[in-house]
Amino acid sequence: MPTAQSVLDDLKSLGSETYRKTYARHGIPLERTYGVSNADLKTLAKSISKPLKKNPAELQALALDLYDTGNMDAMYLAGILADGRLMSRRELQRWAENSHGMSIIAEHTVPWVAVESPHAHHMATEWITSKRDFIASSGWRTWAGMLVVTPDDALDLAEIERLLALVERKILTVEGRHR
Could you count the other beta carbons within 10 Å of the beta carbon of residue 121? Predict the structure, then answer.
């Protein structure tokens, strides 16, 4: 089984200074990325997950270890490898909290794993009330993902209306990087 360190070594070898600079322009600290392309991350994910397909616990453990490295490329890869159905509330919370300073992780990796989780609704509802914008972003993106994957007849329309009203009340008062 690959280790987090062996995967980090692979990521480092796949990194590119051009991608590092691109990620830096998008707010990723240079010291937290090797600059691996999404295509290379997906190829690496396939090569890791294929031999571990029959041992989901090992694959999940590797994903958790990769995320905990704090390296953006490893964290993104962890999101591809992780099975959200196996994530505890505590693990999801840790992922959300450790996404600070990396919008690609807070707004993509954390939500796409959270949406698969049986804790998705609870986490999304809790996160959207966070004073920390990156966690609130994870919450809103998780909500959006849940709306996409939930059959229409299973949606709680009253709850969605309350959320929309909340957006209307707060949208102009929230600090953000997109103003």
Answer: 17
Residue 139: inside a domain, yes or no?
yes
Q: pTM above the 0.90 mark?
A: yes
In the chain, the number of structural domains is 2
- Number of neighbouring beta carbons within 10 Å of residue 93: 19
Q: Which tens digits make up the pLDDT trace of 77-105?
A: 999 999 999 999 999 999 999 999 899 99
Average pLDDT, whole number, for the chain? Answer: 94
Domain boundary among 82, 97, 118: 82
Q: Write down the H helix ranges in the chain.
A: 4-14, 17-25, 38-52, 56-67, 72-81, 89-97, 103-104, 110-116, 120-127, 133-149, 157-170
> Residue 36's domain spans which residues?
1-82
Same domain assignment for residues 70 and 120 = no
